[in-house]
Amino acid sequence: MNIAEVIKQKRQRRNITQAELAELLNVTPQAVSRWEMGVSYPDIAMVPRLSEVLWVTADELLGIGAFAPAQKSEGEGEVALNQSQADSIFDYVPKSTIEKGKKVLIVDDSDFMRMMLEDILTRRGEHTILQAKNGQECLALLQNETVDVCVLDIGMPVMDGFEALRRIKERWPELKVVMLSALSGEGNVRLALELGAEAFVVKPFSVDCLLERVG
User: Fold this and answer.
1) Of 63, 96, 179, 203, which one is least surrounded by beta carbons within 10 A?
2) Poorest-pLDDT segment among 68-77, 125-134, 141-150, 191-200
3) Cβ contact 176:150 at 8 Å
């Protein structure tokens, strides 16, 4: 569920109108309407207030959480792995220190997810961020930019994350790629490993989990 759906669902569950929510948040009703339609997104600084007013955790609002339990992956027909299970496939070893100040390319078709990831990685990781909406944009950007890490979603239009990963490793084999997706069935996690990804972060994810694997 994306942030637009969460806001609308929680507002309706509280039985308040868009105008009433706008008044509680000190924004215009038009702003709330745009959020619920997915036309625009609330500012990151608005998240704590939204959480308080809508009686929802910030993690649920943003689709971020502690390591998720195993569940069915949408469209996969197989049980999704949680973060610990994905780490075991990658033989991931936790780091004692996390490097900061890297140039990171975020590739995700969700505008809000890219904005949220940029906010996390710039504030907490002090990284410089570039963005792409799909695999094709990612490859075009890499033609002209040198980056340290690519954070890559799987389900995207035009070119999905697996095809982008395959092409990245063919042309830039030393580039670190971290897959970030809710499509965490065992087949997908193993395919990411086979294609050369260095880590797989399962959505919903914890901020520390993301920072450690990027760093």
Assistant:
1) 96
2) 68-77
3) yes
